[in-house]
Every structure is written in C-alpha cells, then in structure tokens.
Design goal:
Layout (H helix, E strand, L loop, with lengths): L13 H18 L5 H17 L2 H17 L3 H18 L5 H9 L1 H8 L7 H17 L5 H13 L3 H14 L9 H11 L4 H14 L14 H17 L3 H21 L4 H7 L4 H14 L7 H14 L4 H21 L3 H10 L17 H16 L14 H12 L7 H18 L2 H17 L3 H17 L6 H20 L5 H18 L4 H14 L2 H17 L6 H12 L7 H11 L3 H17 L5 H13 L12 H8 L3 H12 L10 H14 L5 H20 L3 H9 L5
C-alpha cells in the first residue's frame, strides 16, 4: 500500500479524499472527547482505520493521544507501551509526518521519563529503551538533543546518580535549545528537579538566583505575568527546599505570603502538595486542608514517593498516635524502598529518614505494615482520616483517586438492587449497600439503594412498602442532595406525587407520615431546584380527601401559581388531569373545564383519551351525555385492545360509568377494569365502587356486586378512621350507592 504523506492530503481526489477527510474530522472529534477509557478505545479504532487507509501521520497522532491519556490517567505502563508504538510509526514513516508534529512527539521524552518514571514498577531498562529510540530518530531528523539529554538527566536522578545527573544537566544547558531558554519558568523548574534530590540548599539558591534574573522580586507574585502560575509553583518550591535545607523560617514566611496573596483554595490548584505542606507546616489548619487534598488525589501507592512522605509527615505532626499517620509512614517507607530498588541506590530512603521523618514523634504502636492489597491499604488510610474529617459527603464527582473503583462498584451495587432476586436477597443487598456507603462516606449510594428499593416495591405492587421506602429514600437524599445523578434525582422527584396519592389511598399510612413526606420534599426541592408544582398538588389532594372545603380555593390557586413558575419543567396537561382526579369527588361540574386544555392542545394520545373520558363523564353527571360521545370513549378503549392503562391514571370508575350507557360494552369493560385488581386492595377503592354500582344496577344477580360494594365500604370506613371524619363513606354513598 502506498502511504500518504501529510503534505499529499490536499491533492487527494474522489473517494480517497473523502475517506481521509473523514479520518481527519474524526481525529479532531476524539481530541475533544473527555479523558476516559472510551476515548482510549476511540483512538485504537482510529489508529486501525488510519493504518488501513495508509495515513501514518494520523495514526501517529492517535498513538500520541493514547499516550497522553494513559500518562495523565495514572497508567504509566500503558503510557510507555503507547509511546513505544508511536516510536515504531516514527521509525517507519517519520518522513510522512509533519515536521513540527514529529519534533513534538520526540520532545515528549523529557516529560515521559519524569511522569512515567514516577512509578517504580517501570524499570530502568524500559526507560532507557525509550530514550534510545527517541535519540535515534532525533539524530535521524536533525533535531537538537536537548530533550534527550534532559530525559537522561532525569533518569539519572531517578536512579540516584548524582554525578551523572549534574554532568547531563550541564550538557543540557550547554545545548542552548530554543525550546529551553535559560530564564524561562519551565526551564528553571526542570533545573530544580535535577538539583533538589541531591542538594536542597543549592536547588533553593539556584531558584532564587533565577528568580532575580527573571525579574521576580521577593514577596507577592505579579499575577499579570504570563508565567505567574508557574512562578507560584516555584515560589512554593523555594520554600519547601529551604525547609529541607534547615531554613524553616524562610519556608514559613513564603507560606504566609502565598496564603495572604492567593488563599488556600487557589494554592491547591497551583502548587505541589508536598511543597505546600512544608511551607504551611506552621499553620496546622491550612496544612490539614492541603493534606486532605493530597489524600483525595493521590494513588496512595508507590508512585510519587515524596508526596506520600509529605502526607505521612503532615498527618504525624497533627495526630502522631493516629492510625492514619502510622499507615502513611509505612507506605512512604515502602515507596522510598521501591524507588531505591529500581536504581540500586539508597537516596530515597536516606531523604526519608534524614528529613521527612527525622523530627517526628515516635511512631504509634500498632499494625503499620502495608496490606497485601493496595486498594485495601488505601481504603484503610482514607477511612482512618480523610473520610471522617470531611465536612461534606463524598459524591461520584469527588471520589478519592486511590479507590475510585470501589466507589464506582458501590454505586453499581446500589443500582443493581432490583436485580437481586428474592425479597430477602434484595433486602440483603440494600442493607449491605447502606453499610458500605456509610463506611465510604458516600450517602448518595444509600439514596440510590433506597430508591431502587422503592422501585422494587412498585414492581411487586407492595403499596405500603412503596410509601414507607420512599420516605426513607427522601431521608437518604437529604444527606447529600447535591450528590445525586440528575437522572436519579428526576426519577425520585417523579415518584413523589404518585406515592402521595397511594399514601392517601392506604388507611394504614398515618396522615402525619404523608405530612412528613410533603415537608421533606419541600426541603429537598429548595436545594435541588426541582419543580414544586407536585408539592402543591399533593397538598390539594390531602385537603380534598379530608373534606377541607375552605382549603380548596387557596390550594388550587397555589397549584396554578407554581405551575406558571415551573413552566417548561412540568407537563401542564398532567397537572390538569391530576386536578380533575382530585376535584371530581368534590365538584364534578368543574371537571370538563379542568381538562378542556388537554383536549385542545395535548399531543399525547393517553392524555387525549383520559381528557375525553373525563369530559363525557362530567357531562353525564349533569345529565347531558350524548350517545355518540359515550360511544367515542368506548371506541377508543377498543382501539387500545381494551387496555385501561392506555388512559393513564384515569380512575376506572369513570370509564365504568360511561360504559354503563352501552349494554354490549358493560361486561367486557367491567372485566377490563377488574382484571389486575386484588380483592380488598385499598388502592382500588374507586374501581371496586364503580364496578359494584354497574353490577348492582345492571346485573343484580351477579354476586360480585354486593361483595365489591362491601369491599368499597370497608375501605372507606378504614380511611375515615384514619382521617378522623366520615368524608370518604359519605362520598361513596352519595356518588355510588345513593340507594343505601
């Protein structure tokens, strides 16, 4: 296959040009994707497509994208492999790649050794192999060797080879590369990185001299400079190097200046944690904030051993007897030893003992050894300090990096509640999820588990459990209202009103339980910003069931006011149908007017069917029902295979009363209405009453009529006992059984 050079793309024609342009467009789109494994897979597919089409410069771009993702994502071995595969493309097709891109790919080696080399699991031979590959191509294409030399100097630092590192530092500076001007912040940063492990005092002095040459005065940083962010980082590093050189007063002064100028939150986003912990050591409250930031974002493993050492020191100074400090000291000791083992040196362990742990209180007795499983060890560390110290709940957006997979697993476990199987198995998963969510400080997982438990009750038609579980889900959501996924937050909000209707239907649910749910939902929505119309509808429904006539008008107006405020977030037709359902027992004549807007403007077939049924029912109550209108309702029911669910939440008594006008429809409509009911179920009071009336009037010999009437009366009486009045029994008698 003939390979296409970067400068030949413009001359392509026909289908080839279209396919290559599609690859270019796809490459641009992938670069815009968020950092994730999905993006890594997208690059892999793109690379394969580019290789198949013979466009190596795009394949190289894809490999570089993979390397960058793995490198920043804490996957050093995968990053190294991606970079090696990039070099394979360069070695075969380097002259097909745009020169500036080729130079950028090769120049990355200086950063690769530092970032990938932070993990002692990456061996010295692996790093040397990569540097050798890059050097070959750098010489081949005539670029200067500045980045290769810097990479070798950084590798010497990793291996504790002071003399070689300093020699290579001199060579690097002597090259005079335009990429590394002598008084540039990036250049100074790399110079300090090579000096600091061997001589912190010299590194601090060198940085100070470079600052002077760069026109940076002592004291506050000029934040209008283009390099101000890097200068803040370097100022903090001067302070930490001064502390390591025995000048803690200098470190403290720099820490105070940085806090006064930038504040702790901005510093956390700018300087290194290990530097901030030293310059703020005299400010324990600020140091604790920095340590917690470091704990949240660290892998709590052997990578970046100096970060682990600084965290161990800070926590030991704050709480020397605590398990957290003991575990962190053990981890830092292990990490330093692992870095020493790679380079055959004791540089890291000496620094640990001579500075980081030198003046600490004696380690607390106990098990300070690292656990066999790194994730288990990291969790122990976090549960020993970071989790209990948090002033806000952990959310899926703020999980600690070291055990993020455990939080993801917890969330997935919560989501899987309904798949657990039997009721005891479901209960066990819910309880296990709740216990685990409390261990990890993520109440949103408890909320999700409880919400899924609600759905499980819904699927099982366990109405009382549905109401009680929803109340516990509200309580769980209140612990972390800002940490819930929008889709789940919306699902919970959507359940509120149906659950309130069910609670009103169940005599076993006390009214104060319903009131507590309404109060809890009001508080939740004040935080989440979800629509409040359903709350007003629930309050109106409660007043209607209790026969609180004086409340209807004000509450009805409150619904209208909130509906206007929630415009665009609430379906007004659903609300109008809910109002018809609530107010029909109170004022049947108002129903047609309530649903008129639904008939006129809704595009939802179920809403249209329900609105027509309500309209015809309302006319029948006034003695005005036309036969053709009645027939239209029954025809619609036939058109949906006699499935009353296709009429939404329309009370089935409405269709039963309409069907009573058509003798040939009475039987099958009655069967459809009773098909999925459970004898004695309070949530079917309306259906039982409507069916009993139809049977008593048109099939008095059918024994179901009296039985259904007694079921309805028994449920109404139970509701009256719960409500403390006789409203439900009186409405039942007036509407359905006026003969007694």
């Amino acid at each position: 296959m003939t390979m296409i050079r970067y400068d030949e793309v413009a001359g392509l024609t026909g289908e080839k040009a279209q396919r290559v342009q599609a690859l270019i467009d796809r490459s641009t789109a992938i670069w815009d994707m968020p950092d994730s494994l999905e993006t890594v897979r997208a690059w892999e597919e793109q690379i394969a497509a580019c290789e198949a089409e013979g466009v190596p410069h795009l394949a190289a771009s894809g490999r570089f994208g993979q390397y960058a993702l793995y490198s920043t994502g804490g996957m050093p071995l995968a990053a190294l492999e991606a970079f090696v595969r990039l070099m394979q493309i360069v070695s075969r097709y380097g002259d097909h790649i745009r020169p500036e891109n080729l130079q950028a790919f090769l120049g990355t080696v200086a950063n690769l050794v530092v970032t990938v080399g932070e993990d002692p699991a990456v061996t010295r031979p692996q790093l040397e192999r990569v540097v050798d590959l890059v050097e070959q191509q750098t010489v081949r294409y005539g670029f200067d060797l500045a980045n290769v030399t810097l990479a070798r100097a950084s590798l010497a630092v990793l291996c504790g080879e002071q003399e070689r590192a300093l020699e290579l530092l001199d060579q690097w500076q002597g090259i005079g590369s335009a990429e590394w001007p002598p008084f540039d912040a990036n250049t100074v940063t790399r110079e300090a990185m090579i000096l600091e492990p061997f001589d912190p005092a010299e590194a601090a002095a060198t940085l100070t001299r470079r600052f002077t040459a760069m026109g940076v005065e002592p004291g506050p940083i000029d934040m209008h400079r283009d390099d101000s962010r890097q200068l803040v980082l370097l100022r903090a590093e001067i302070g930490s190097l001064s502390a390591r050189a025995g000048k803690k007063d200098v470190a403290s002064r720099i820490g105070d200046e940085l806090i006064d100028q930038l504040g702790i939150d901005r510093l956390l986003r700018t300087a290194k944690v290990q530097d901030l912990l030293l310059v703020l050591e005299h400010r324990p409250d600020d140091a604790r904030v920095v340590a917690d930031f470091g704990l949240e974002n660290s892998g709590l493993d052997h990578v970046d051993w100096r970060l682990q050492a600084s965290l161990a020191r800070s926590r030991a100074l704050d709480d020397p007897a605590g398990e957290e400090a003991t575990l962190l000291r053990a981890l830092a000791t292990e990490a330093a030893a692992a870095h020493d083992a790679r380079g055959g040196t004791d540089l890291h362990t000496r620094e640990l003992q001579d500075f980081w742990f030198a003046d600490l209180p004696a380690a607390a007795p106990g098990d300070g050894s690292a656990d066999e499983d790194p994730d288990e060890r990291a969790e122990r560390i976090l549960r020993a300090g970071w989790i209990p110290r948090r002033t806000s709940p952990v959310t899926m957006e703020s999980v600690p990096f070291a055990i993020k997979d455990r939080y993801v697993a917890l969330h997935e476990q919560a989501m899987s509640v309904t798949e657990a199987g039997s009721d005891p198995e479901v209960e066990a998963v819910v309880e296990a999820t709740i216990a685990r969510s409390r261990e990890l400080g993520m109440p949103s997982a408890e909320f999700v588990a409880r919400l899924m438990h609600v759905f499980h009750a819904y699927e099982a038609d366990d109405h009382e459990a549905l109401v009680l579980r929803f109340a516990t889900a509200q309580e769980a959501q209140a612990l972390a209202p800002d940490g819930v996924e929008p889709a789940l937050e919306k699902a919970a909000a959507g359940l509120f009103l149906p659950v309130c209707f069910i609670a009103l239907d169940l005599p076993t649910i006390p009214l104060d339980r319903l009131g507590a749910m309404i109060t809890a939902e009001t508080a939740l929505r004040a935080v989440t910003g979800m629509p409040t119309t359903p709350i007003a509808v629930a309050e109106l429904a409660r007043a209607a069931q209790l026969g609180q006539d004086a409340e209807y008008g004000p509450l009805f107006e409150e619904v209208r006011t909130r509906l206007a405020a929630d415009a665009g977030d609430v379906d007004p037709f659903d609300v109008q149908l809910d109002l018809a359902r609530i107010l029909a027992p109170v004022d049947a004549s108002a129903v047609p007017g309530l649903v008129a807007g639904v008939l006129r403007a809704s595009n939802d077939p179920a809403q249209q069917r329900a609105a027509l049924a309500w309209t015809v029912w309302g006319a029948l109550q006034e003695g005005e029902g036309a036969d053709d209108a009645v027939a239209a309702v029954i025809a619609q029911l036939e058109a949906v295979d006699r499935d009353l669910e296709e009429f939404g939440d329309l009370p089935r008594s409405v269709v039963l009363e309409v069907a009573a006008r058509i003798p040939e429809a009475r039987g099958w409509v009655l069967d459809a209405a009773l098909a999925d009911t459970t004898p004695g179920d309070p949530t079917h009071l309306d259906t039982f009453a409507g069916a009993a009336r139809l049977l008593l009037e048109h099939a008095p010999a059918d024994e179901r009529g009296p039985r259904l009437r007694e079921d309805a009366r028994r449920i109404a009486a139970a509701l009256d006992r719960r409500n403390g009045n006789a409203v439900q029994s009186e409405r039942l008698r007036t509407r359905f059984f006026p003969e007694g």
